[in-house]
Each structure stands twice: as structure tokens, then as C-alpha cells.
Design goal:
InterPro entries: CMP-NeuNAc_synthase (IPR050793), Cytidylyl_trans (IPR003329), Nucleotide-diphossugar_trans (IPR029044). The protein is built from seven helices and eleven strands. By secondary structure, the protein is α/β, with parallel strands linked by helices. The chain has one domain: Spore Coat Polysaccharide Biosynthesis Protein SpsA, Chain A (Alpha-Beta Complex), CATH 3.90.550.10. Strands 1, 4, 5, 6, 9, 10 and 11 form a seven-stranded mixed β-sheet that branches. It has a two-stranded antiparallel ribbon with strand order 2-3. It starts with 7 loop residues before the first strand and ends with a helix.
Length: about 240
């Protein structure tokens, strides 16, 4: 696949019916619909020859088209439930595009609408890593403490990974990372179809700053992300200032 000229489909999932933040995908974030930021980045990166928003909502579809994305069809209700698997919606979209438009992309660029702090560089870094390695998936992560706990209803906590005897000092642990939203996924489509998953057997990652790894699932995260977005340049300047000391 590396030797073929890539044909990239930018896939933006945007299901309606958000429970925690009603109308999340088209709610105004720092002055414009949240989904607009992702569509604009998909256009600006100039990697994709087709940009598709996959939604079950006519209202989301209308706004997506106004900002330059395609919505050739709506996602069926059975694939738009709270517990629906994203891989099923992806396969459905790929199958319909192939059947109805004879469109057969080689790679899928998945961009979540809930990552307004994502930057164009994050997308390009993922594509460069995909092109220069044997990866069949490249995604973005951010640093985190590698020790995780589960909490029971009675407030008892148990360690999920690691050794409780290890120091609480962060430097005593190996570096840990978590998916950051996720900003970006780039997947080889033949592998995706074969394994029926986005995070395939040969997955590599690009590390992004923790402060930009916002994933808007709650009102608290929304408010915090807007503050960060409106002060991005100031924050970046202050971080560089501290790093140089």
C-alpha cells in the first residue's frame, strides 16, 4: 500500500443526540459551530480528496455542508445509538461510498469534532509517521501518569496496572500515555476492513501536549477548553518561557 498513491477520505463522525451537552456538534464554541473547526482543518491540511461528515442529524448535515463538507447520506438510526460501535459506522460509510460513488480510498483520516485545540501540525505529523513506517494506524496521544485506579461504589479503589510499592514520585514510573480525544487517527483501510478495528495491530503514535488534549464530553470540559482556546498564544508563550529557564 505504501507504494501506491494514497487516496485519503477525511471522516468526521458527528452523531446527534448528545446527552451531556445537548446539540454539542453544532453548539457555538468561541463564536462558531464546534464542527466547523474540524471541517476547516480537514480542508486546510490538503491531504483528503473527500471530506465526509457522518451524521444521523439533518441539522448537523446542513451546517456541515455550509462549511464545506460532504454529507451524501444520513447514518441509519441503528448505528447512531449511545452504545453503537464507530467501526460499524465507518464500514457502512465506506461500503456506501464504494457502491454509490465508486469511491475506494486507501486511507481513512478520522477527525473528532470534540477536539477544537487540535492543530494542523498534529494531522501532518501523523501522516508523516504513517508514510515513513510500517504502521497501519497512527494516532495521537498525550502524556499521563501510568498508574490507574478503579473506584467501586463504596469509594474503595484498586490499582489497575503497576505496582503499589513503586514510589509516588512520577519520575520513578515508566512514561505513560493515553488517547487524547482522539485528535487524529489515520488508518490503512484494507487493514481496517480485515481487522474490523481502528487501532490495528501495527499502531504508532504522535505525542501531543497535554494541555491541548481537550475532549469535550462534559460542560466542565467545554468551559475549560474555551478558556484554553481563547488564550492559546498566551499559554504557548508562557510554556516556552518556563521551558527555557
Amino acid at each position: 500500500m505504501k507504494n501506491l498513491k494514497p487516496k485519503i477520505l477525511a471522516y468526521i463522525p458527528a452523531r446527534g443526540g448528545s446527552k451531556r451537552i445537548p446539540g454539542k456538534n453544532i453548539k457555538k464554541f468561541a463564536g462558531k459551530p464546534l464542527i466547523a473547526y474540524t471541517i476547516e482543518q480537514a480542508l486546510a491540511c490538503k491531504l483528503a480528496d473527500k471530506i465526509v461528515v457522518d451524521t444521523d442529524s439533518k441539522e448537523i448535515a446542513k451546517i456541515a455542508k455550509e462549511h464545506g463538507a460532504e454529507v451524501s447520506f444520513l447514518r441509519p438510526a441503528k448505528l447512531a445509538q449511545d452504545k453503537s460501535m464507530i467501526i460499524d459506522s465507518i464500514i457502512y460509510t465506506l461500503d456506501r461510498l464504494e457502491k454509490e460513488q465508486n469511491y475506494k480510498p486507501t486511507h481513512l483520516l478520522i477527525l473528532q469534532t470534540t477536539s477544537p485545540l487540535r492543530e494542523l501540525k498534529d494531522i501532518m505529523d501523523c501522516w508523516k509517521l504513517m508514510q515513513s513506517t510500517n504502521a497501519t494506524t497512527v494516532l495521537t496521544v498525550c502524556p499521563t501518569h501510568p498508574c490507574f485506579y478503579h473506584m467501586k461504589e463504596n469509594k474503595d479503589i484498586t490499582i489497575v496496572n503497576g505496582n503499589e510499592g513503586i514510589s509516588t514520585n512520577m519520575q520513578a514510573w515508566p512514561e505513560g500515555y493515553i488517547l487524547n480525544g482522539c485528535f487524529v487517527y489515520i488508518v490503512d483501510i484494507p487493514t481496517l476492513r480485515k481487522e474490523r478495528r481502528v487501532i490495528t495491530a501495527k499502531t504508532k503514535a504522535v505525542v501531543c501536549p497535554k494541555w491541548r488534549s481537550a475532549d469535550l464530553d462534559t460542560p466542565e470540559e467545554w468551559v475549560m477548553a474555551e478558556v484554553l482556546y481563547k488564550n492559546k498564544k498566551k499559554i504557548e508563550k508562557q510554556i516556552k518561557k518556563h521551558e527555557s529557564k
